[in-house]
Amino acid sequence: MALYIKAAEILQKAEMKQGALKTLVYDSKFPSIKQLFALVCETQKFSSILQEIIESTKLLKHTKLKMTLAKVLVYDLLIGQGLKCGGTWKAKMMKHRPRLQAELARMKVRRKVSRNEDLLPASAQQTPGDQLPRYVRMNTLKTSVEDAVDYLKRDGFSYLGQALKLDNLTLKNKDFVMDLHLPELLVFSPKTEFHDHFLYKAGHIILQDKASCLPAYLLDPPPGSHVIDACAAPGNKTSHLAAIMKNRGRLFAFDLDGKRLATMSTLLLRAGVTCHQLANQDFLKVDTNGPQYKDVEYILLDPSCSGSGMVCLRDDSAAHPEEEKARLASLASFQLKCLNHSLRFPRLKRLVYSTCSIHSQENEEVIAACLQQNPNFRYLLCKCTSFLDSCQNNVPFHMLSQCHPHSICLFFSALFTFYLHFSFNLCVFDQFLCEKSSWDR
Ligand SMILES: C[S@@+](CC[C@H](N)C(=O)[O-])C[C@H]1O[C@@H](n2cnc3c(N)ncnc32)[C@H](O)[C@@H]1O
Hints:
Blueprint: H1 2-15, H2 21-27, H3 33-45, H4 47-56, H5 59-63, H6 67-79, H7 87-110, H8 122-125, H9 128-131, E1 134-138, H10 145-154, E2 158-162, E3 175-178, E4 185-188, H11 198-201, E5 205-207, H12 210-219, E6 226-229, H13 236-244, E7 250-255, H14 258-270, E8 276-280, E9 296-301, H15 321-342, E10 350-353, H16 364-373, E11 378-385, E12 394-402, E13 408-412, H17 416-419, H18 423-437
S-adenosylmethionine (SAM) is lined by residues 212, 231-237, 254-257, 260, 282-284, 302-304.
């Protein structure tokens, strides 16, 4: 029953806008995160249908259950894999099962559909998350791409070489390719499962979306450099930075949340990272003139954000507009403070700013305000064709830089997560590559 109680608690918090679904699941420290995550995502997807069934069968009145708990239980009873609890809860639900099933059947007849999935609005029947390939980053601190590919081939996967165009990322069964842009990234068919795989458990591979790989890739700190990961937990980007630095140099990683930092410590240990120094500290209170940071030239800033760009976690339930506005304003203010603070490190050369938000308040507007307050940064505007606007309009994409004397570059890599799979971002990404190759370090 613990699974259902925890899932209901998370859905309740998400409804009250107390955090993004993924963060709430992650922070719950539930022993089976994957199972919990699947249950909350699916229950949320079917939420309106479950609510209709619960209301028309008067389940809450009969069982004294709260709505969110009723939803997760009814989801598993009618749509999921069957109830995974015993005792009085199961007995209670089983007693009402015939009426619940009958209501679901009536609903399907009314809507002239045969499958549960068909009850969902067209937009929800297949989420973008269902179509996205599974990206896996090779942890070059522990393995090489060649060795990992060989291992996977021996394990029954079929390697199709490097992807040359977007279409090559539409993969089936056990086929996999090397990513178009990042050679350390292998791409598998959607939902390919690696959590129990030896390579994952041994820290040879990291399950990390392409969007999440871009910030460290763009920051590109050389081995031996001094780097800050300002808001670091749970640490996938930190481990990526360490791999790029070949574990040489100093990697200062901060996070305010002790629990997330503890998880991060385990992750870094498994990934073989040794050049890091973790601090459970408010990044905004880090002394930018501290002697230990005097050689910091690279900063990765991935601050807390609304998470509105996370494909499989998008929560489209109507938020109260005023509350949503206030929440975004507060996040944007924090993000701007972090940016301004980062720019105070005396030897800073390059900074990557990333969010997984699709809100301009957390992206363009933060960057614009930062520019205004730091006039020594130059502004470059990249134009690219937008998939989102039916490939018609040019969407401005912002990149800030100050080339002399210390070639400071500030990237705005937001939007990547949400739209990653579509040509929009790959197009933007190409622009980055062009710019990147022409930088003078
Ligand atoms: C988007 S997450 C970072 C994800 C991480 N970069 C990764 O790739 O795994 C944002 C993190 O910022 C942390 N955070 C929030 N406020 C902070 C602050 N003032 N100082 C340091 N960390 C903070 C949160 O605890 C959270 O772990």
